[in-house]
Design brief:
Elements: E1 10-14, H1 21-33, E2 40-43, H2 47-56, H3 61-67, H4 78-84, H5 90-101, H6 106-111, E3 115-122, E4 128-131, H7 137-147, E5 157-159, E6 162-166, H8 168-171, H9 175-181, E7 185-189, H10 202-211, H11 216-223, H12 225-241, E8 245-248, H13 262-278, H14 280-288
Parallel strand pairs: 1-2, 1-7, 2-3, 7-8
Antiparallel strand pairs: 3-4, 3-6, 5-6
């Protein structure tokens, strides 16, 4: 599919979800295989690990960077938390892997005709902060680390001196940003099944108020997160019915945020690839009309 035939007002929005992001990688690897070039990519949290490879044109890299390392290195879990203070070994994921084990092509990423957006959550304001320009590879990985720093299981990151946590806490499904960008068509990759709705978790909020009491606006944002998320799902369904959104969701299976079984993750990745392959004609018709 020729890139110039797809309007610049078209984008891809990728939901996060830690290890569930392998589903999105499967979808995008099919896009790369078929040379389906969408000019804008908006990735939330772990969705960035799928989206960045699409921009740099590194088909299959997520398998090498996220799934295969688990055969040798259990980079998540209670032992990692006791040693590093984080459930996921962020140093391993955002330093060792992209520089040594599965090198990320930052030069091609920067020179790509595609635009990449990622968000973090400002702990002071509770608002989403978006980035689409990266001064250096070091800054890029610093932002990606902050964008994936979930409360409790990750340390607060600082960007320009501002405390930041996972972008999905303020904007897990950033439909408002899609509208602000003026995208007329959007491919949306969700990582949960169609019947999922987010619930308010009382115990979680009680702990959040205790641990993050210095950030009242952040607490307020998280308290309304389930309502915002579900409202965004409703809006996505409306956009889908109106023909403005093409939505991919896992159907036959789902995995947990912290799934570490290599075979299960490979099956979930393959599920994403097969969903895109099954809908190839639909993809082309959506993007070209």
């Amino acid at each position: 599919m020729e890139n110039q035939l797809i309007t610049r007002k078209t984008g891809i929005m990728i939901e996060g979800g830690a290890m569930r992001s392998v589903f999105a990688a499967g979808v995008l690897d099919f896009f790369m295989e078929k040379k389906i070039e969408v000019p804008n990519v908006l990735a939330v949290s772990a969705g960035a690990y799928a989206g960045m490879n699409y921009v740099s044109g590194q088909r299959g890299r997520l398998v090498d960077a996220v799934i295969k390392p688990l055969e040798q290195e259990k980079y998540m879990g209670p032992a990692t938390f006791m040693k590093k203070g984080t459930f996921f070994d962020m140093d391993y994921l955002f330093d060792v892997v992209p520089r040594k084990l599965a090198p990320f092509d930052f030069k091609t990423f920067c020179n790509s005709t595609k635009r990449f957006l990622i968000n973090t959550t400002d702990c002071h304001t509770g608002e989403s902060v978006y980035y689409d320009e990266f001064e250096s590879e070091e800054q890029f990985w610093k932002i990606c680390r902050a964008a994936n720093s979930l409360p409790f299981i990750s340390k607060i990151s600082h960007i320009n001196g501002i405390p930041m946590l996972d972008g999905g806490m303020a904007d897990a499904l950033p439909i408002s940003r899609v509208i602000e960008e003026g995208w007329e068509k959007v491919v949306i990759i969700l990582t949960r099944k169609s019947d999922y709705r987010k619930k308010y978790r009382h115990f979680y909020m009680m702990l959040l108020r205790f641990v993050y009491h210095r950030y009242p606006q952040f607490i307020k944002t998280v308290a309304g997160r389930n309502q915002k998320y579900n409202a965004c799902l409703d809006e996505i369904e409306r956009m889908e019915k109106e023909g403005r959104a093409l939505v991919f969701r896992p159907s036959r299976m789902t995995v947990s945020n912290n799934e570490s079984n290599v075979d299960t993750l490979m099956e979930y990745y393959q599920h994403g690839y097969e969903e895109a392959m099954r809908r190839e004609e639909e993809i082309c018709n959506f993007l070209m009309t």
